[in-house]
Design goal:
This protein folds into two domains: 121 residues, no CATH class; 138 residues. It is built from 14 helices and no strands. The radius of gyration is 20 Å and the shape is globular. The longest helix has 17 residues. It is mainly alpha-helical.
């Protein structure tokens, strides 16, 4: 099989598949808006907030964390307007952060504090990411550091691994998500949607790790002559069915996952590569 041609064909089918969802209101113009990142934050506080947004983007965390407080932005008053150094001066432990949140944003609810519970994990991410971001004086300082890795394709995969070790609960996939959403388009988040599609279409091994799925996305993007960010977003939209910037579609932007349908349709159209 010619891998380059196969990758190119899969991407073309994926984009075509999304454009077939016109009955939901998906148009070419709407789709293109999702294929490029939003402007980067120009402050350390903005970057710190982005880390915390990525840190809740796993499994049930977004519903439990963001859903409970009406969005990560509402942590601002508790977290000193997202000033990492001020957060470190105010809190010496994740428990003290959770104590304050229970008094303010989480009043009336019963918050579990077991080792496997979501809020303790998230508060550890709040504290460890504040510690990490306090090393940087300005947004440009941070972006220059990221660019040091991003400008070398051999070093690039090491960056999400480093972040995953520095920030508790982030992990390789969420660290990649954080970087790509900052506009570093050479990164892709190997989440469950991309894993299912890439494994389902034999774009990576069935037992592929997050790192291997991420490498497969980067390879496909190169062969399709698009950014890894764009490739990630195309497959994520198929898998999640969530057009977060277009709440007029479906149920507040949610049209439902089309993952199984796409895999079945793509397999039939890709038989010539077997």
């Amino acid at each position: 099989m010619n891998q380059a041609e196969y990758d190119k064909a899969v991407y073309a089918l994926a984009k075509q598949f999304l454009l077939q969802q016109s009955n939901y209101g998906v148009t070419s113009e709407l789709l293109e808006r999702y294929l490029n990142p939003k402007p980067r934050p120009q402050s350390i506080a903005g970057i710190y907030q982005r880390i915390l947004e990525s840190a809740q983007n796993a499994n049930m965390k977004a519903n439990v964390v963001g859903g409970a407080i009406g969005g990560v932005e509402n942590l601002g008053p508790t977290l000193c307007n997202f000033d990492p150094k001020a957060v470190l001066a105010k809190y010496q432990s994740w428990e003290s952060i959770l104590d304050d949140l229970e008094k303010t944003l989480l009043r009336g609810g019963t918050i579990r504090r077991t080792s496997r519970s979501i809020w303790p994990h998230y508060c550890q991410a709040i504290l460890s990411s504040a510690r990490f971001m306090s090393q940087f004086e300005t947004a440009d300082d941070f972006y220059s550091w990221v660019s040091f890795f991003d400008n070398d394709s051999r070093a690039r995969p090491a960056l999400p691994m480093l972040l995953a070790n520095e920030i508790k609960g982030l992990g390789f996939a969420l660290a990649s998500d954080f970087l790509k959403e900052l506009g570093f388009v050479n990164f892709a988040k190997p989440d469950v949607h991309l894993q299912d599609i890439f494994i389902g279409l034999n774009l990576c091994p069935a037992d592929a790790s997050d790192y291997e799925v991420s490498k497969a996305v980067v390879r496909l993007a190169k062969n399709a002559k698009v950014s890894p960010y764009a490739a990630d977003k195309i497959f994520w939209l198929i898998g999640s069915g969530f057009y977060y910037d277009d709440k007029q579609l479906g149920d507040k932007g949610k049209i439902g996952s089309k993952k199984a349908e796409f895999i079945k349709e793509a397999k039939a159209k890709l038989k010539s590569f077997e």
